[in-house]
Amino acid sequence: MKARSFLHLLILPILLFSCNGTKIDKLLGSSSPYKDYENSLKNAGMESYALGKDWIEAGEKALLNPSSISLPYQEVTRFENANPQAVFLEYSVTEGQEIEIKVEQISQQSGMVFIDVFEKTDESQKNIHFAKEQHSIKYKVTKSGIHGVRVQPELFRGGIIQIAVTYNASLTFPIEGKNHQSIGSFFGVARDGGARKHEGVDVFAPKGTPVVAVTEGRVSRVGSNRLGGKTVSMAASGYSYYFAHLDSQLVSIGQKIKPGDTLGLVGNTGNAITTPPHLHFGIYKSGRGAVDPLPFLASAKELAEPNFSDSIDLGGPHKIIVPKANLRQEPNTQSSTITQLTNNTIVFAMGKSSDWYRVKLPDGENGYLHQNLLSSNLPPLSKIDMSNTISLKEDFLNENTFPSDLIGKKAEIIGEFGSYKMLKSESGAFYWAID
């Protein structure tokens, strides 16, 4: 193929997607910007060339090799412009949560960053949400499970990027001026000496405090019973929301209501007659019964401002600087240990979350290391004379090797991984040598 034709193929997808906010989903008639971009590469013949092929494979490989996080989570990462990369962060979700994902481009403002949310199933990863024109996603969890977010810049774009994944309350709190930290008794605790379990949460408040609607819907029941005393129920989106022990009810059956509308006033009617005034709030799902209201009402603590000072070293090699370092499943000391790494082991720092690095081992395994366990300072362990008897390779996972005398006369050994040594040539390039 002539050089000019290849250049046209190369520029086509870049022109289509480089402007942030382009309504490419309307242009191509597809709903997923990531798939649209992937298809444009294929349609332009780019999947036959290393650059396009590497970009597609980076997205696919990320899904197979997730990094585990607990919410809320925030990290600073760095994507090299000339090296297609993707990160896939996997997290547990609970029915009722509202998940919020924000991706902010720090060092580069132009270009697309694709954000896709996947649900883990028994057989595969199912794409359930994606960002269109904004670098953020909000969605409500309808089923507890494992989700993950893949973040991948378009070709020739990247730089320093901040990723934040957190959760918010999906319902308005049922008592004015209070939040989930005001809950005094939780779902599932024993009642009547263990004869039954609590099917909701209790929030204590002065008698007469307004009890408000948690979402938009209709009043489905206004009544009374032995346990709940004066009650109000409202229905919305397949759920029934139950408010009990009211001192008075201020709505009628069939009434349409909005979040924050007053339904009644806090009291201690029913079996709460001997307790301080409080609201019992329950959630029921058709065909399933009671579900825990806490995830519907709880919001995560605010994330601290990130520190960008270490971002210049992200993506490059780091070295273990202690005799033994535990590679963790998640960025905390309570997380399970994946493996132990020894002094001078080479890892690649891919992201930074507070005091923890998200790292990738040369063999592709992911995990987390505390910042005190590794360093980007790579003093030589020894020097080595290059000769054609030593075999080198640029990529640890690549099988292609070449004789070491092609890179110069001398090199420094700066670290190791398994039976391989990492060398730094006289020109500053890094290579792997078989021990």
UniProtKB/TrEMBL annotation:
Give start and end of each SH3b domain.
Answer: 315-378
Residue ranges crossing the lipid bilayer per the database entry: none
List, alphabetically, the InterPro entries matched.
Answer: Cell_wall_metabolism_enzyme (IPR050570), Dup_hybrid_motif (IPR011055), M23ase_b-sheet_dom (IPR016047), SH3-like_bac-type (IPR003646)
Pfam families xrefs = Peptidase_M23 (PF01551), SH3_3 (PF08239)
Q: Which domain of life is it from?
A: Bacteria
CDD domains membership: M23_peptidase
Alphabetical list of Gene3D superfamilies matching this protein: Glucose Permease (Domain IIA), SH3 Domains
Give the protein name, as stated in the record.
Answer: M23 family metallopeptidase
